[in-house]
Amino acid sequence: MSVRKTIREINGIRDQLSKKNAEYFDEVIVHVRSSRVTEESGEDWLLARGRELLAAQQKGGTAAKLFGQDPVAFADGALAGLPQRRAENRSRLWLLAPWAALSWTFLLLGLTALFAPETENVNIGLLLIVVVGALVLVEVLMRLVRRDPGEGVPAPPKFNARNVGTMLAVLVAVGIAGLLLIRIMPVVTIPYWLSLALAAAGFVGQFALLRRR
């Protein structure tokens, strides 16, 4: 069965579930589809669990009794045993994000130094903050992105207390680390022409990276 047909069958099962069971199953679907398991194995697993839940519901059972009170914990328990997608795309994104951030940073530094030569003095800590900040932003966005339960496609981020708390903690940690880095890291002089050259090289490199398959 194709993935599309599997998703349609899952949708048909969801339509037959009670409100509470459907809400529980939606949480499981979102968690599985936003994980790194291969799409086919993830959808097949969801279909099997949907059939189990529908059969249990017809006998008066509930999702919480069948799978446990926490849908995320239930999904996590199964994810480890499912085939995982290759990390190539994720690794490329982790490389591209700080690369792009540094390219724009050098461009801004170079342009600013044309009119304010004193800005050629750059704290190494600032560059490290740019790199770490870009990586953190990518990770946060990837964790927030989910898939729509009905279509199996990316949907707007789902915000909840756990997500908001995690983001705030990460931002505070990055901010504190950034202040410490700026205070202890040395200052180097980067001429405007070098900043512009690094920015140009960075943009060319990004273009080449994006063209690779």
TrEMBL record:
Q: Name one Pfam family in it.
A: DUF1129
User: Which residue ranges run through the membrane?
Assistant: 93-116, 122-142, 163-184, 190-210
Q: Does the keyword Membrane apply?
A: yes
Keywords of the record, alphabetical order, are: Membrane, Transmembrane, Transmembrane helix
Under InterPro entries, the record lists: DUF1129 (IPR009214)
Q: What is this protein called?
A: DUF1129 domain-containing protein
